[in-house]
Amino acid sequence: MSDTSFDYIVIGGGTAGSLMANRLSADKSKRVLLIEAGRKDDYHWIHIPVGYLYCIGNPRTDWLYSTEPDAGLNGRSLRYPRGKTLGGCSSINGMIYMRGQSRDYEQWAQLTGDDAWRWDSVLPDFMKHEDHYLGDAAQAAQRDTDFGRFHGHGGEWRVEKQRLRWDILDAFAQAAVQAGVPATDDFNRGSNEGVGYFQVNQKSGWRWNTAKAFLRPTCYGRPNFELWTGAQVSRLIIETGADGALRCTGVEVWDGHQKVRATAAHEVLLCAGSIGSPQLLQLSGIGPADLLQAHGIEVKADLPGVGENLQDHLQIRAVFRVQGASTLNTMASTTWGKARIGLTYALSRSGPMSMAPSQLGAFTRSSPDREWPNLEYHVQPLSLDAFGEPLHRDPAFTASVCNLNPSSRGSVRIRSPRFEDAPAIAPNYLSTDEDRKVAADSLRVTRRIVAQPALAPFKPEEWKPGTQYQSDEDLARLAGDIATTIFHPVGTTKMGADSDPLAVLDSRLRLRDGRGGRIAGLRVVDAGAMPTITSGNTNSPTLMMAEKAAAWVRESAILA
Predict the structure, then answer these.
(1) Which residues form the Glucose-methanol-choline oxidoreductase N-terminal domain (predicted)?
(2) In the prediction, which pLDDT does 332 show?
């Protein structure tokens, strides 16, 4: 920390921050500082795919957040993992490569009034950093003629097929087809309707996080790039000019011993995620005035939308016991079984240790009158009481289903003016009649799939929630008992049109000042900027947003 003057400061070395640091430091004339509160990604469990089990709930790699008690979950609180290490959530997530649906981005364009967010405009940003395995020379025969229209090759973000299959998952996929869900081998061409195995961000059986993809070796070899780890930004420095205009000129950083100030000549890029970014804005005097005043924080910009509009995917985990099927429950039930799993991974980088948390996916409708798929399944050849708990001993599979487009909205609000204190996270799951109805209907869809002939040889028996629950009221209440997050919080610093009073950012991710202008030198670039949640896993859309934002930042520097 001997040098504290830079052109750009990127806060957060996670998904968006890693890409931003890479793109901005490519200009050798600009000095870039990347600040990460966690440590480097040198913990071995980060890189072994099944290691998410040892990273989530571990202070070495996780912020260890929990939600407020939630009425929609019948008073339960949930563990709320967020990555605290280089690579951020890409170091502890499910590794699923998913863009969502084209209509998601058409809606963003409508809400922001900016065609830059239309599907045809964001697709090149997805492809720019993509390194899809079908682009490899050895896979040429498997590519169709449309491959190059939808996928890129040679970028930093590796996408591969999974390295194992399960008979019970193959049977579930066949059952889904029998229930009317079409088979697909690619969820990422604008319509993800169908059933198939997820593609994952792995490379030869190792997790491929954004620190590997975008920071090393590229950034580490650049003399104009500096990285601070174990350094938490305590507040943004917001200055008021003679004309009353606001500008972010830098950050205050706690390194574990003292506070250090670093300045940015051009821009500060806030990439701390949907929880960290609104918290830091509020601590810096940007947010709802009544909240800030209640904690004795000087109001720099009264922005009521900061920390509001929280959206997340809530998964309802239905568990089915089976007979005559190999599942991870039985494979990992003995010392010999665990040893064989370890040996398989050591020799071939395959088997259960190479597994993403969910292998099979499906997108379908909760009822025939839906215009588009509004459900996503994550199907797993295992079962347990709760994430992080031991596996059950009986063979079973779990069919987790989520409402892709929830209407419930929550919040992230500081509890105190201390940066060390975790904010209050209140998702407000199942707080609308529509979400409760979709929850009940989704469990019925699950039952319809499991009842198909393809699964009959395995004699599936519904364990949770249980066939005795049939009414909308019963199923919605049971959803509250057994549902949990898939870790997709978005929307807490949403972008939007000038006419939207809750829009924190403009369509180019620049901060509003609450008075019709902008806070110069400050953007938020992470999933919090999404006005609505994407119809699928959120990691890759966040990378796309960072790709687009990096281009805008460079353009602004040229025009300045």
Answers:
(1) 273-287
(2) 81
